[in-house]
Amino acid sequence: MKFKRSILITGGAGFIGSHVVRRFVKAYPEYRIINLDKLTYAGNLDNLRDIENAPNYRFFKADICDFETVSDLMRQEKVDGVIHLAAESHVDRSIKDPFTFARTNVMGTLSLLQAARLLWEGRNYEGCFFYHISTDEVYGALPMDGTLFTEKTPYSPHSPYSASKASSDHFVRAFHDTYGMPAVVTNCSNNYGPYQFPEKLIPLFINNIRHRKPLPVYGRGENVRDWLYVGDHAAAIDLIFHRGAAGETYNIGGFNEWKNIDLIKLMIATVDRLLGRPVGADMDLITYVTDRAGHDLRYAIDSSKLRDNLGWKPSVTFEEGLEQTVRWYLENGAWLDAVTSGAYLSYYEEMYAGR
After folding, report:
1. Which listed residue (37, 80, 137, 151) is catalytic?
2. Rounded distance between C-alpha atoms, residue 301 and residue 142, angstroms
3. Catalytic pick among 161, 192, 195, 229
4. Domain spans in the chain, listed from the N-terminal domain onward
């Protein structure tokens, strides 16, 4: 079958990436969708069981830092679009191991950019597009006064994770400015939803409530985050990939600011209700712990540019999205148990042994 386009999605076995891959495979049967993922601890092909045999889908296990492999793959598959989601993304891990974050997030992005440039510049980039997904954490912290991050907010990263993402953002813009590569950067707020690795707050706490384990809360839980349902993020990525202007930055936020402690209390009430427990029965699981180093007080995204220019807005409120998310995790206990136990890793290690 001859495909209209060949789109490489990096990190497509991860949380956000799997939602983007699924959306593109189902919505665009005329596109070849190539999922490139290293299958680190955060990559799980179980996230994509429903589309793994689709005729327009292919999976490749590879490291984005492997420039030769990436270049060969893009050339063989005649890739004309890249949606780059592969990244190390957990702040606590970045504090313990900043080298891994610099390697994957900075050098991995540069590897993809250079491979794309060498493949595309001969056609003067016609019909080609590089889309880099980043984070609101590159902007630093906001005061508790209602101000929001905009696309013009100066970068001020405070953790090794956000510093690595800031660097990768600058490389993408530099390739646009230097080589004329059609590229966009988007900075999103905290994502939540099905298939998120349970080191992140919402799935971790759902699982802990489920098993009546402690819920460790940094400081007094006063930190504020803007929450974005992953399905809404995937819809925004789809829209920007097809209609976004090269050289632009778009912020993607959920218009859902919540203090951590208020979110956790809502989560406890929701899980308790759906499990048939007295609502609030598990409030005593909350355990306050020493705050994290470099823990930004507040993040909040202004998505008005994306709304006004391309017509995007979130489809669910936080309460609606959280209800859907809690139901999914409770109904997919086998997935959650396999991930938390690490059983999924041994399965893929055996499958790809020697490759």
Report:
1. 137
2. 10
3. 161
4. 5-192+227-255+294-316+344-351
Among the listed residues 136, 151, 257, 302, the single catalytic one is 136
Pairing of β 183-188 and β 249-252: parallel
* 31 has catalytic annotation: no
Average pLDDT (75-94) is 95
Specify whether 348 is catalytic. no
Sequence-distant (≥ 6) Cβ neighbours of residue 118 within 8 angstroms: 71
Helix 333-341 vs helix 343-351: crossing angle, to nearest 10: 80
CA distance 244 to 306: 9
Residue 355's pLDDT is what? 41
Token look-up 């006004």 returns 308
- For 125-158, the pLDDT digits (tens) are 999 999 999 999 999 999 888 899 999 999 999 9
- pLDDT, position 292: 77
Residue 354, sorted as left (phi over 0), alpha (psi -120 to 50) or beta, turns out to be left
Q: Is 161 a catalytic residue?
A: yes
- 57: closest CA among 111, 88, 15, 13? 13
User: Under CATH, which architecture does the 5-192+227-255+294-316+344-351 domain have?
Assistant: 3-Layer(aba) Sandwich (3.40)
